[in-house]
Amino acid sequence: MIGLSEGKYFGSSSEYLETEHFIFSITNHNPHHHIDDHYHDNPYLSVLLSGSYSELNGTDNTLVNPGDILFRPEAYTHKNTFNEKPGKCFNIEFKKQNGKSNMTEMSSPNTFLQFKTSQQKSIYQLIVNFKIHQNPDAAEEYMFDWLNEFSTDCNQLHTQSINKAIKILDSETDQFHRLNDIADRVCIHPVYLSRLFKQKTGKTISEYQLNSKVQQAVKLLLNTKYSISRVSQELAFFDDAHFIKSFKAILGLPPHQFRLALKS
């Protein structure tokens, strides 16, 4: 697999501008140009100006058309095949500052994203500036505008993702959920999910999951005649000992004594 260092791209480069925080470039690709699996050391945005190509990452295949804007995180592995027309891409690379990219500082998701063309005004203002004026200061300002908009959008998406994770943990108490599984379902990187979940709830996902299970256990203990073993099985605890220990740690009594105390 090929790794591309800062400022390096496949295809031929026709225009290039480097500023303090970004590298802007245009790359040209021949018809049917195929690029095998590769990744870039830095995260970057790519805007397709002409032509079209397919992008394959694992089993995910994306068709990219003129005007489409893609964000690829650092070390994102993908391959591309251009179609029958020549392709031209406008690339915006985020340089590293003290070993970290600007996208890291903005707490962006570490995932591939495809943006709606109509909602990215700052990017198209940037392209016009790049093609006509080549003004480095204006280019940086347009990018910082976009980063601010992007950060706001990400925060909204993160909130939705955390709420969805909470709903999963509250409603699916009949199984144990791993962090990576939850992250896949709510479409957010596990590192971000873990951090943001703790910020919102004050608990780790494991702690919150145990609390949800114990809350459901209380309902079963008070509203059914299930044995302790049956309740443990219903809530997918590893064994009865694990259930009893978890229940006592949260409510101060083992489940059998808890049931007796409330029903006596």
TrEMBL record:
Recorded hits in Pfam families, A to Z, give: HTH_18
The coiled-coil regions, if any, are: none
Which SMART domains does this UniProt record tie to the protein? Answer: HTH_ARAC
Query: Which InterPro entries does the UniProt record give?
Result: Homeodomain-like_sf, HTH_AraC, HTH_AraC-typ_CS, RmlC_Cupin_sf
SUPFAM superfamilies in the record: Homeodomain-like (SSF46689), RmlC-like cupins (SSF51182)
- The HTH araC/xylS-type domain extends over 163-261
Q: Which UniProt keywords apply?
A: DNA-binding, Transcription, Transcription regulation
* Source taxon at top rank: Bacteria
- Listed GO molecular functions? DNA-binding transcription factor activity; sequence-specific DNA binding
Q: How is this protein named in the record?
A: Helix-turn-helix transcriptional regulator
- Taxonomic placement: Bacteria, Pseudomonadati, Bacteroidota, Cytophagia, Cytophagales
